[in-house]
Amino acid sequence: MAAGDFDVTSAQYGAKPDSDITQALANAWKDACASTSPSPCKAPIEMQVQGTLQAPEDGSQLSKPDTWIDFSYLDKLTLSGGGTFDGQGALAWKQNDCHKKANCNSIAINLRFNFVNNSVVKDVTSLNSKNFHVNVIGCNQFTFQDFTVTAPGDSINTDGIHIGRSTGVNITDTKIGTGDDCISIGDGTKQLTVTKVTCGPGHGISIGSLGRYPKEEPVEGINVRNCTLSKTTNGVRIKTWPASPDASTASDIHFEDIIMDDVANPIIVDQEYCPWNNCKKEAPSKIKVSNVSFKNIKGTSSSPVAVKIACAKGLPCEKVEMTDIDLKYSGNQGSITSECSNVQPTITRVPNALACAAKS
């Protein structure tokens, strides 16, 4: 078949509204790939989604319980078309116990990108994923643009975009509202740029969590700029587990020109992250955090502790800079303040209450 358009709704493939189009989609994809001779699926390929694709509500029809749609080992993919990937996650959220225990049953992620390079996702929506909306692993030079993530604030474990072991990922002009981190940045992430992202509801934009598993790779070159967070449970965050099995690093991390709208914990570094309270906090994190800056961060905090930088005992954070921090407390539980330990940041144009006087 010659290169061109492959329409799943055509008579050749037979996809119909309100029906299972799995086979039609698989056949169209196979033909599209075969058309890119001499190497199947190595030439540029674009998948346009128009309308709404719905995942099985209970997940029972999925070939893998942790995956709905998977793109793997591709180069020059474009995913576009203005359509929506609806994970139909409401039933799964009720059954999800991952917020209570570390070992929980696998639940489907809406979109997985594994080892996909020089590619773009634009003008599509991920809706109500059962688990993470998007998981990006082993990718290089990958862009999200005009991408939308939507799920209720109480949907469990529904990170918007999770990135790990990838280099040169760019997220721009993107709107994320979900029940967990809007963007979560895992080990091995390098040269990530996040710009013009709005986040809320959600748990903020987070580096980590890091240091939970053996042989994690360093995180470096993270730039988050010109973003707005609204009514999220955290703002910009770095989180590492205590009692890390192996040593690693998180460095060259920069947050700049960020607006906080009634955000709890607007600026937070937490090296005692322990969400299920089943780790050994007396054993400090082995993740070295260094060369971190928070610049021009303004707006309102819904909690009195607007700045918290709690670094690891015996492994203090180094080269931490705070410049032009202007946050006001929107509640009535006292005055705005900061809490910091095992760090001596460089402070420029920051009110005394937020100046992060180190505590023993």
TrEMBL record:
A Pfam family reported for this protein in Swiss-Prot or TrEMBL: Glyco_hydro_28
GO biological process terms on file: carbohydrate metabolic process; cell wall organization
Compartments in which it is found: Secreted, Cell wall
Name of this protein: Uncharacterized protein
Keyword Zinc on entry: no
Keywords: Cell wall, Cell wall biogenesis/degradation, Glycosidase, Hydrolase, Secreted
Superkingdom in the source lineage: Eukaryota
Residues forming the catalytic site: 203
Main location: secreted
The keyword Nucleotide-binding belongs to this UniProt entry's keyword annotation: no
PANTHER family named among the record's database cross-references: PTHR31375
Family: Belongs to the glycosyl hydrolase 28 family.
A GO MF term: polygalacturonase activity
PROSITE patterns: POLYGALACTURONASE
